Fold:
Amino acid sequence: MLQAAAFYILAGTAVISAFMVVAARNPVRAVLFLILTFFSAAGLFVMLGAEFLAMLLVIVYVGAVAVLFLFVVMMLDVDFAALKEGFLSYLPLGGAVALALVGILSLTGISWVVSDTAGAALQTPVPPDMSNAEALGSILYDRYVFFFQLAGLVLLVAMIGAIVLTLRHREGVRRQNIARQVQRRREEGVELVEVKSGEGIG
Amino acid sequence: MTGPALLADLSLIIPELILAVGAMGLLLAGVFIKGEETAARLVSLAAMALLILAAGVAVFLAPQGGGTAFFGAFVLDSFSLYAKAVVYLAAAIALVLAGHYLRTERLARFEFPVLILLATLGMSVMVSAGDLIALYLGLELQSLALYILAAFNRDSLRASEAGLKYFVLGALSSGLLLYGASLVYGFAGSTEFGAIALAAENPSVGLVFGLVFVVSGLAFKISAAPFHMWTPDVYEGAPTPVAAFFATAPKLAAMVLLIRVLMEPFGAMADQWQQITIILAILSMGIGALGALLQTNIKRLMAYSSIGNMGYALVGLSAASEAAVWAVLLYMTLYVIGVAGAFGVILSMRRAEGMVERIEDLAGLSKSRPGLALAFTGLLLSIGGMPFLVGFFGKLFVFYAAVQAGLVWLAVIGGLFSAISIAYYLMILKRVWFDEPTGGEFINPPASVAIITRVTGIATVGLLLLVPFMLTRVIEAGSAIGG
Structure:
């Protein structure tokens, strides 16, 4: 009973906020609704017993991707009114794509239900005495440690590349020097001036 | 996997560990060394030392009989060891060629040798891949570093264009490869080469589809036609030493990977993939030979030459036999030596006002620099496979493997295109030897470049004495794969 209630609340929030992402006029609100969608989806994952996936969704999608979207929306001057202008003319094509997607998903779902062998594949191989984060970790850092480290190196190369291709050391830029800031004494920064009334300090 | 098991696996990847740890250490060192040029010079020297050290470990300290590590993801056999040693040395040569060029073009930054090291690490994983995931990660580690190197001269519009073009098309080819890999995984039930080989004995249609996509993705990396479009633009736009690197180590590594993928997991499906490699071979030889005839830029010409040469290597691979494996390995080794030297000559084409790279700028080279002209002649004719130079034996054995497998007609077509390709090498050499000099003389090349051109130039003749030795090495290496 409690589970069913939680499911309907989370699923309802997910559907409504997903709709609001598209419908919201203000792009910042749209991104915030997107974050709400991610949170409710994470809740659904927890209910399915996939708490690792839920953590991943919150950390990666909410923590990084959505915040990045927020930055893009707020930093770049994108004219969203102009972007939405052709909404009606694109509606048939968009609808067709959406229909095709629904068709594919339901086809997969139906064949899953109908199939005789799908049940065997459904059995979760997670050992009962482990949480699934632990189970994933014990395979990722053990059997697949070579791939894991290689993937890390690929990311390192990506980072070096971003820096090599874009970072320019400009002359005459004032940088923060924390050690100097901390060492600064009162006498260097503050001066007590006797100001005569009506004359100013100019 | 803990303690002793992990140590046993790590002992097989010592060259890779040297490169990975070295690259990260040099990245740190480069930040702390004062002065950009000093940092670049020191890091570059250290990177060369690391590459030679890794090659030494691969040649002299490899465990007897090899073995596999990380549940079959990493294969160490005589085949991969041979490829590794050549790749490491080719990368070291690229660093030697690059030093002076980068300093004079104001590109000397310590990230350059670090990226070369990381790309070499990727190639090293590629040639040892025993699993589709290792294959993809190695390939991507290599490619990503190469995209950055192509655009390394970020203030040049052409270099940026080259980097972007390479990146976009490379991402497309990685997509093809991954799609194929997912099909193979789906229909074979495993990403491991051994398990795929079992499934390939009774191949399903899905596995054939996967094979086609995987081969297409790999064909892009060796720039075999019709996946060659990026090559001329990237070679022309990228800094010349980077183009020299592109033409040598990555080509060999990708070809070795292609050999392993086709001969090991898909060995039982040779009938299927032979058709693909034959088409790739004919198209590459044709486009390489005919495209090169029209070029005026020497770097673009080298790009078409490399497309054509991949075609000849694929002729050998189409034989799908043990002879095919060692013949292609020998061919690629000799090709790498020739191309490294030829790019050394291109890097010597510097006048007082800067680098030149048109073919007509070579006019009268024999009068101003007879030594360089002689070396260039030997190198170009060796790449072209002229008899009595060492490159001839590469082509000879490749065609021999094809004839032995009953592909006489393919060898004949290869011979015809080979004759056409000799024509454009001779067109360059006519300018070098018989045309009157135009423009100013070339200034003295730096000692590092001069040594490479001289040594490789002499090697085109001198290696003739070593052909029997090289044959025993490649046959030993090839026996690890076998048909």
